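Ticket #4471: structure export looks truncated?
Reporter: QA, pipeline team
Priority: medium

Steps to reproduce: submit the single chain below to the structure queue and open the exported record.
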Amino acid sequence: MEAQLGLLKQFLACVKANPSMMNSKELAFFKEFIESYGGTVPADPEPKTTKAEEPKKEEKKEEEDEKMEEEESAIPYPTLIGLENVMQPDSDVYPMGDADKEMGDDYGEKFSSERDAAMGAMGEGEYEKAIEHFNNAIQINPQSSMIFAKRAQCLLQMKKPAAAIRDASRAIELNADSANGYKWRGKGHRLLGHWVEAYTDFATALKIDYDDSVNEWMKEVESNAKHLKEYNRAVERQREEKELKERRERIKKAQEERAKAAKEQEERDEAMGGGMGGMGGMGGMGEFFAKMMGDPELKESMQDPEVASAVMEIMQDPSALMKYMGNHKVMSAFSKLKGMFGGMGDDEGHEHGEEGGCCGGHDTTPSECNETKSTPSSVPHTAPMPDLD
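Actual output as written to the record:
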């Protein structure tokens, strides 16, 4: 029992330290138990916005601003006329025949018979019957541009503009100079509200073979086609300007990031290498860090922020060494570095004494200093001992 109570106390201590754990799925049963006795479990606090999330908010704001800007600068769709005769596209599909098939000589009479029957039925207004004969004629001779153009005309009478466009396009594929192909395809585009396409097909048909009815149809769609062409050009121009602006912004951003990175690298180089002139034989920062990290004891010392900061300060300003004379950790690390590279901290002339001379601060040259050192210390002169013999 005591063991279980000990575990319970440990659990409650954890809950007290982190109340939000009570809202986890695993402890839902315990939360219900507390609430069943009238207790309450505090809700999870609102998550704080971290610095990492701030850029995301800025990006989202930029996207919203761009979207708003696009909506404000959207080019209005032109107000068109003559929309009362526009139809919904049909979905009926009719046989197109074998595109690779060539009509044999013995099928010429049969083809002519089906073609004539189709034309007769269409003249009588029997469009469904006419379509059947056109289908048979196409199966016999799928290379006839004329028969596809005629079936397209019949389909337009049946209010099937999409199917008529397919037939007329096939007629143009078989004969690029098919005036009827362009005529009936233009009519199909007109019924579907494809103003620019209709105008283009009517204009082409008139160039091949002038027709008064086609000329009237072209005048009918000319205004809408003109407005749509201007609208399409404006939209395309806006799209190109937007792409150019985005490209320039990407280039500018990349240049700024490169300049920033270069400046940061320069500052790091100056901070790390500014005071390293006295490190003889160092051979560059790469060698410096390679040697420093190769010594386990020195590597461990440099992981201490106090030591690393002090060493960097001394390397930048050798006179700062005096400030750390009493700090064993700093001096130990610095001594190791000095032993590795030599010359570190010698800029102050400590080799010749603290005050500029080797002889207690007197104005002596190194040669005089050496002579002084080689001379025996001052020894009191004594009188010669008498010869007692």
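Status: closed, not a bug. The export was complete when the record was re-opened. Leaving a note from the reviewer for reference: The mean pLDDT is 77.
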